[in-house]
Design brief:
eight-stranded parallel beta barrel; TIM Barrel; binds 3-methyl-2-oxobutanoic acid
Length: 294
């Protein structure tokens, strides 16, 4: 796609690959190939991410912060998520070799009952999502495991999200490292097993010690995708605006600005995303300084 429609020159410049599906992601994990995931919220960046070889696009509720200027993800609504999922899906329409598209279920959209979760997930799937993501622990929270199983049984693939779950920021007392200490680490492993057993196909691990993320990754068969969780997850995700150095204010230590190359020179956005994909695939990102110790 260009501003005025699709262009064969765009297609010609892209490496040829098949569209990324869930079985393909499982195959990549089994074969030891890392999964490169980024958030994305609009059509233009969706085309750019796809051309640059991103495997999975997450239309994250982080859009509340980087697009809308809110101080948390809590104000984001299902209708706003539907709008951005549709924007991204329109960008990808007609392209070959597109990333898998995940839509985030926002705060309070899946908690009341499995049936409400299903209705909201269906809204995102109709807009073009191929999977939905929801946050929370599956072990103590039987309702969450039940909701995951309810969605999966009805044909909606689910990505779970553990560790620092931003929708619970007030309960967690801020955006802080999770899973520190033996009890918390043990709980994370139990939670991961519970969401995997409930049928989740993927698990995001956010801001937990690298050693704990490695333990969780070994404990379950589904791919783990880390953000501030060390290099031993099956893949990595970053917020697009963070890795492009666009988000004003505090930059968390797990973020690397890929617009500035190791040579100190700046690159265009597509080259930055390509550099991110290459660094995730060859294991050079995240480096130890992007992670947390026990
Ligand atoms: O909303 C989001 O962008 C996310 C990622 C940080 C994983 O959940």
């Amino acid at each position: 796609m260009t501003l005025y429609g699709s262009s064969s020159a765009d297609d010609a410049s892209r490496p040829s690959r098949k569209a990324i599906t869930l079985p393909r992601l499982a195959e990549m994990t089994a074969g030891g190939e890392k999964i490169a995931m980024l958030t994305c919220y609009d059509a233009s960046f969706a085309v750019l991410c796809s051309r640059a070889g991103i495997d999975v696009i997450l239309v994250g509720d982080s859009l509340g912060m980087v697009i809308q200027g809110e101080t948390s993800t809590l104000p984001v609504t299902v209708e706003q998520m539907r709008y951005h999922v549709a924007c991204v899906a329109r960008g990808l329409a007609g392209m070959a070799g597109t990333p898998l598209l995940i839509g985030d279920l926002p705060f309070a959209s899946y908690h009341a009952s499995p049936a409400t979760a299903f209705d909201h997930a269906a809204t995102l799937m109709r807009a073009g999502a191929q999977m939905v993501k929801l946050e929370g622990a599956g072990h103590d929270n039987a309702w969450l495991a039940e909701t995951i199983a309810f969605l999966v049984a009805r044909g909606i693939p689910v990505c779970a999200h553990l560790g620092l779950t931003p929708q619970s920021v007030h309960q967690l007392g801020g955006y802080r490292v999770q899973g520190r200490g033996d009890d918390q680490a043990e709980r994370l492993v139990l939670d991961a097993r519970a969401v995997a057993n409930a049928g989740a196909s993927m698990l995001v691990l956010e801001v937990i010690p690298a050693a704990i993320a490695a333990r969780v990754t070994e404990a379950i068969a589904i791919p783990t995708i880390g953000i501030g969780a060390g290099d031993r997850c099956d893949g990595q995700v970053l917020v697009l605006h963070d890795m492009l150095g666009l988000y004003p204010g505090h930059r968390p230590r797990f973020v690397k600005n890929f617009v500035v190359g190791d040579d100190g020179l700046t690159r265009d956005c597509e080259s930055a995303v390509r550099a991110y994909v290459a660094a995730v695939k060859d294991g050079s990102f995240p480096a130890p300084e992007h992670g947390f110790e026990r």
